[in-house]
Design brief:
This protein is mainly α.
Length: 136
C-alpha cells in the first residue's frame, strides 16, 4: 500500500474487525492494527482529519485516553466545525477524570450542532454526576 486512502481503508477495516471480534485479544490486536494504519495515513497526510479522529476512537477503545485526547484535539484544530472530534475529546476527558473540561467540550459541540445526540448524552451524563439534574 502506498496511498493515504488505501491505508485509511485498512484502518477502518481493522477497527470494524475489532468491533466484530468475540475475543478481547483479537480485538486489541485489530485496534492496534487500525492505529498503525491511521499513523501511516498521517505520515502521508498530516492534515487527514478522519484519520486523526478514527485513531482517537481506536486509542480510546484501548484505554489510551491521553493519546486519544491528543488525536481528537489535533483533529478539532484542523477542522473546528466537526463535532465528532469534540465529542471524542470530551469522552476522553471524562475518562481522565476531567469532568469540568468534558462538560465545556460537550457544550462546544452542542453550540456547533445542537441536535448531536452523543454530545447531548455526554453533557447530561456529566451534569447528572455533578447532581445538576435541572440542567441535565
Amino acid at each position: 500500500m502506498s496511498g493515504a486512502a488505501e491505508w485509511f481503508d485498512q484502518g477502518v477495516k481493522a477497527a470494524a474487525a475489532a468491533q466484530k471480534s468475540r475475543s478481547a485479544a483479537r480485538a486489541q490486536r485489530a485496534l492496534q492494527q487500525a492505529i498503525d494504519a491511521f499513523d501511516q495515513v498521517l505520515r502521508l497526510d498530516s492534515g487527514h482529519v478522519a484519520a486523526l479522529t478514527q485513531r482517537g476512537l481506536a486509542q480510546a477503545q484501548l484505554g489510551q485516553h491521553d493519546a486519544a485526547l491528543d488525536s481528537f484535539v489535533a483533529a478539532s484544530a484542523k477542522q473546528p466545525d466537526d463535532v465528532q472530534p469534540l465529542v471524542g475529546a470530551a469522552r476522553s476527558l471524562l475518562q481522565l477524570g476531567r469532568a469540568d473540561d468534558a462538560l465545556k467540550t460537550f457544550e462546544r459541540a452542542l453550540a456547533l450542532r445542537p441536535d448531536e445526540l452523543d454530545a447531548q448524552a455526554g453533557r447530561a451524563e456529566v451534569l447528572m454526576a455533578k447532581g445538576d439534574f435541572g440542567r441535565a
